[in-house]
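Handout, section B. The chain below has 181 residues.
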Amino acid sequence: MNKNEYQIVHLFPTSLFVNNIGVDEEVRNNVINEEMERMATGNGYFSKSKYLLNKPEYKNLKDEILHQLYLYTKHYLKVSDNQSFFLQNSWSVKHVPGDWAHEHMHGNSMISGIYYVKTTENSGGVNFIKPSGYTNLFHSNIRVKFDEETLQNSEACNQSPVEGNLLLFPSHLVHKVQKNL
């Protein structure tokens, strides 16, 4: 390699898996018609059932999500075949205009996911936030100015909601949902 050629090695990346698996109209209608309750925080609704994917009407969706989880963990992350994953909980969230979700992560879990069954043009995107103290580039107590924001130098990464998209990510990754406009 000569002095004008260089190589970039991404050390210890945090991986976000994104795949559009489509939306079955019957599944969409079932999710929309789930019994919901307003969150105590007043910023959204969630299904009363916290085990939606265990219901028979969601069997095909559950199977597809498990297949995608397999692709993420076995094909991409190269997790050994003798390791297995299972779903703990599954619920739906509905954000009406003005609703949002605060910064949070999912404890007592390894991988979390978001599946969009219905979105609108101004639905709030999910914003993944670089963990406090994570120093992939410069320490957080030094503020360096950049000419362009990239995944390597940003403090957050936004994913716009797209119907049918499934996002899988490490559960410790802090995220929030922007206001639904």
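Note. The longest helix spans residues 59-76. Compare this with the example in section A.
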